[in-house]
Amino acid sequence: MYHFIINPKSSSGRGIRYWWIVKSELDRQQISYSATFTKHMGHATELTEQICNENPGIKNIVVLGGDGTINEVVNGIPNFSEVLLGYIPSGSSNDLARSLGIPNDPIKALCNILKPSKFQYLDIGKIDFINMSTAPRKFACSSGMGYDANVCMEVQASPLKRRLNRFGAGKLVYIAIAIKQLFFTKQLNATVIVDGVKKDTYRKILLVSSMIHKYEGGGLRITPDASPTDGKLSICLVHGLSKLRTLILLPTIFVGKHVKFKGIETFHCSEIEIIADDITAVHTDGEIPAVCSHIKVQCIAGQIRMIL
Fold it and tell me: Computed over its alpha carbons, how large is the radius of gyration of the chain?
């Protein structure tokens, strides 16, 4: 039995279009499955919890949606050892699929799930929001504090993105908002503690990205050396740069060359704590769970058993 969780509105309706293609193939092969559709933010978490609680033994859960839907599902799994996770990407960014080489074609992705040749145990991240009532949040692909989270927050609220997604041009909104937020994101001063040891107090921080995979934001190679199986977070910390210099360096992120420039630090760790002098947005897989000033991020090794 395969349990499908479908976000029909992912990428402005691509989700539901892909589902009818997938459903037709499942029915043709007479595959046993259940299918539930997400109806509101957080619903995929609720559906995942329900599937896990009502079905004994190993659960084959297949997500048809984007990185945000994957994030919700990961946060709904109470016991990762009892879940096999499949993914049919239908979002606008699909950074997890890009990192893992999962096909964008729904039939090819489905075939990999129905006749798997490879499984991989993937790390996940977890964020604790210190001195806040917000519950800890897991993430599958990426998280960030500052600039990248502000971009995510504005993109989520943009009606233009939803319209352009219908024509496959949603990335234009990401680019436009990314340029705009370079000039509007407030830079922070913050103390950074790495694996329990104070690393430094930084001035004029633009962002701190804590990554499991290489990509975020629809193909931006934030941490080119990231591995989802090394038990480590890959950190990109940008600080001390003028807005003009940051704008000039922005295109280099697409090919991962930004890490060669002064003011951009990358390193690996098991845990990072950030204590900023002001509140700012925080994202997990492109979703915004909190606006705060103090977070602790850790890597939890080998949690997701993913069908590739």
Answer: 19
